Amino acid sequence: MNKILKxxxxxxxxxxxxxxxSVVARDPEADGTFYYSVKSTxxxxxxxxxxxxxxxxxxxxxxxxxxxxxxxxRPCKRCKPNQASLVEHYAANVTKACRxxxxxxxxxxxxxxxxxxxISMFHFHRMFKTSTGLTPREYALAHCAKRIRNKxxxxxxxxxxxxxxxxxxxxxxxxxxxxxxxxxPSNYRAGGAGSEIRFAVxxxxxxxxxxxxxxxxxxxxxLGDDPDELARDLQDRFPRANLIxxxxxxxxxxxxxxxxxxxxxxxxxxxxxxxxxxxxxRVWQALREIPVGSTASYTDIANRIGSSNSVRAVARACAENxxxxxxxxxxxxxxxxxxxxxxxxxxxxxxxxxxERQTHEHTH
Length: 364
Prior knowledge:
- The protein is built from 17 helices and ten strands.
- By secondary structure, it is an alpha/beta fold.
- Helix 4 packs across helix 5 and helix 4 (86-103) crosses helix 6.
- The protein is flat.
């Protein structure tokens, strides 16, 4: 085969691989997800390597560093792909801090956490937020909420649940109970009895849309074809809450959400009542940081929260999101860019992404 033609075909194959874009961008978030090698030098590198960009016809991709080394390639002396990356170093420290939080009877202070991992408070706070999408305190509160929810569901009394969850006094728990649970512990234990949730159903180009709001903020945005089915879904989520149909003032809130669905550029600045485990909140925060008009893969999200082995758990967290569009799980796609399952239907996901891309192109 003509050498020029062969090189052209090899270059086209590399440039058509979605991993090549990460190499061109020197994307540090892609580090650890794959490696690339350069035939002309016999070395392999991280995607973020700062060395001069290789010619695409000389590039091959490898899933692991072991694959690259088994092919007879040497690690690059510049990016040192055979050593722990900064992202991996962050992940190890964050994991250590998370374990400390989860094993503590009370919320550790920032100073205690920083001392536990052996770095300064400023650097630790920035590293933790970068890796998880949550501050250390937000993570600790989310974990406490999960622990107390589990105990409230299995203990005979609220007091017993409080002590079983690790609190040494009722007062310490009640000082933060509303922040943790969104209601009093007695009401939570009774399935939300006594709490009020206002809701209304509207129509948009994607079908029916239900918006619900607790005292803390918007707690559900549900999409579907059948308004009655959406109302039943809300009732299942809050089985003993007092559900109140929205009045004219509340209808304006629904209109605001519908306006965002139709024109994403307007933004959605609403207080949210986000209820989930610490892991779910990390995922959902990462989703909210994906810009309008952009997408990310489940692997990308797992890496961003410092949990590269949790791709399936990320997908589950996306599926359990009850705040459509406000927490944009529709912006998460498969590694090859293809659309995968969406709680409210792949057709709606496709329509939302198309609308956001058009909005992004128009504003730029």
